[in-house]
Write a sequence for this structure.
C-alpha cells in the first residue's frame, strides 16, 4: 500500500481561507523534514500557486497538461524548495522537499476543462502517482469549495480530511452536509478547523460548541486577522509571522495532521 | 497487425467507455464494496493475489472472507466499476471512474469564448 498520506482540505463555502490554510499547513509540515506535495484540484478557480510565488509567467506544466496527456506528473511538480524567491516567509522553505502541482490559470485551459469535462481515471492516476513518483509523506489537496465530483473523489481517497468553517450559520449548515458525506465515505481521520473567529469570543467555548454539534474534533480555532488580510497572499503568513496567534493556532492543526496515524 | 498488448489495451479502453463509477456512487455502495473500491482508488490496479493479501492485512472487523471478496469482485466488474484483465489467480483489477461530463452549454458559446480568449 502507498505510504504517503492524502490530506484533503475542504470547505462547503468559499472565502473560508482554504488555500491560505492549505499552503501554510503544507509548508509547516515540510519544515519538519517531511516530503510534501500540494495539488490544486480547484481547476475552475485555481489560486494556491500565488502563495508559493507563482504567476502565469513562471508557471510551467500544469495539472491541466497532465489531464490532457501533454505532460507527466513529474513535469508538473514545481519544486518550491528550489524556487522560494525573496519573500521572507517562503525563503525558509529553501532546500525543503515541497512540490506544488498547480492548475492552469490560462483562461482557454480553464474553459477547455469546463467544456470537455474531466477524465477521472487520469485525475486519480495523477493524484496517486504524485505520492509514488515524489516519494511523498503527505499530499495536500486543495479542493473547490462546495461539493462536486472532484471534491468527492479527493474526500474518498483521503486519509485525513480537514473541513474549514467559519463560526457562521451558513458555514455550520454546510459543514454538516460535508461531514455526513465524509462519514459515508469512511474517511479515517476527520478534523475540523474554525477560521476567522472573532477574537472577542472565547475560542475554547467555540471549540467545545462545534465539537459537540458535529461530534468531531476541532484541530484549531484561528482568529479573524487583519494582518493576514494585509499579507494579501504575498507570502506564507505562518512562516513570516510565526509568533502571530493565527500562525500558532495553524501549527496546532499541522501537529494534529502529523499525529494522525 | 495488432499484438496481444494492443488488443488488451483496446479492450480496456472499450470497457472504460462503457461505464465507470462516479464519486457519488461510492457513497451509495455497501461497506464491503466501498472498502474494495477505496483500496483500488489508492492503488489504481492490483493483482488478485495482492488484493487478497491486502484484505488479510485489514483489521479483523473490516476483513472480507475469500468468498465474500470474490463475490464483491464479480459485482464490481459486472458494473465495469473495476475492470478485470485475465482470469482467476492471474487476474489484474483496475479501477474505472466515469468521466466527468463537460458543460451542456451550446457549442457556439464555447467557440465564441475561445475566440475571445485567443486575443
Amino acid at each position: 500500500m502507498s505510504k504517503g498520506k492524502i490530506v484533503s482540505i475542504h470547505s462547503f463555502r468559499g472565502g473560508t481561507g482554504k488555500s491560505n490554510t492549505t499552503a501554510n499547513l503544507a509548508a509547516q509540515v515540510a519544515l519538519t523534514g517531511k516530503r510534501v506535495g500540494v495539488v490544486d484540484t480547484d481547476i475552475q478557480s485555481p489560486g494556491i500557486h500565488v502563495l508559493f510565488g507563482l504567476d502565469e509567467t513562471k508557471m510551467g506544466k500544469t495539472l491541466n497538461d497532465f489531464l490532457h496527456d501533454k505532460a507527466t506528473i513529474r513535469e508538473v511538480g514545481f519544486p518550491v524548495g528550489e524556487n522560494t524567491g525573496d519573500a521572507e516567509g517562503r525563503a525558509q522553505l529553501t532546500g525543503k522537499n515541497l512540490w506544488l502541482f498547480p492548475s492552469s490559470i490560462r483562461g482557454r485551459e480553464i474553459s477547455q476543462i469546463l467544456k470537455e469535462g474531466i477524465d477521472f481515471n487520469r485525475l486519480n492516476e495523477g493524484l496517486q502517482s504524485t505520492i509514488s513518483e515524489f516519494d511523498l509523506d503527505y499530499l495536500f489537496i486543495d479542493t473547490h469549495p462546495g461539493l462536486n465530483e472532484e471534491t468527492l473523489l479527493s474526500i474518498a481517497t483521503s486519509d485525513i480530511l480537514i473541513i474549514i468553517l467559519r463560526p457562521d450559520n451558513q458555514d455550520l449548515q454546510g459543514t454538516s452536509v460535508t461531514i455526513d458525506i465524509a462519514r459515508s465515505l469512511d474517511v479515517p481521520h476527520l478534523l475540523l478547523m474554525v477560521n476567522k473567529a472573532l477574537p472577542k469570543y472565547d475560542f475554547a467555548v467555540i471549540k467545545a460548541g462545534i465539537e459537540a454539534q458535529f461530534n468531531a474534533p476541532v484541530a484549531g480555532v484561528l482568529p479573524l486577522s487583519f494582518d493576514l488580510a494585509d499579507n494579501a497572499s504575498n507570502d506564507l503568513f505562518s512562516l513570516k509571522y510565526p509568533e502571530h496567534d493565527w500562525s500558532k493556532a495553524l501549527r496546532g492543526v499541522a501537529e494534529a495532521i502529523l499525529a494522525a496515524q | 497487425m495488432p499484438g496481444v498488448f494492443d488488443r488488451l489495451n483496446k479492450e480496456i479502453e472499450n470497457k472504460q467507455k462503457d461505464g465507470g463509477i462516479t464519486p457519488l456512487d461510492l457513497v451509495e455502495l455497501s461497506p464491503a464494496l466501498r472498502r474494495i473500491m477505496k483500496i483500488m482508488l489508492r492503488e489504481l490496479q492490483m493483482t488478485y493475489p495482492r488484493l487478497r493479501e491486502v484484505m488479510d492485512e485489514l483489521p479483523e472487523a473490516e476483513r472480507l472472507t475469500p468468498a465474500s471478496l470474490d463475490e464483491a469482485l464479480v459485482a464490481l466488474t459486472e458494473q465495469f466499476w473495476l475492470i478485470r484483465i485475465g482470469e482467476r489467480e492471474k487476474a489484474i483489477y483496475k479501477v474505472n471512474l466515469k468521466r466527468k461530463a463537460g458543460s451542456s452549454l451550446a457549442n457556439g458559446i464555447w467557440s465564441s469564448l475561445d475566440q475571445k480568449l485567443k486575443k
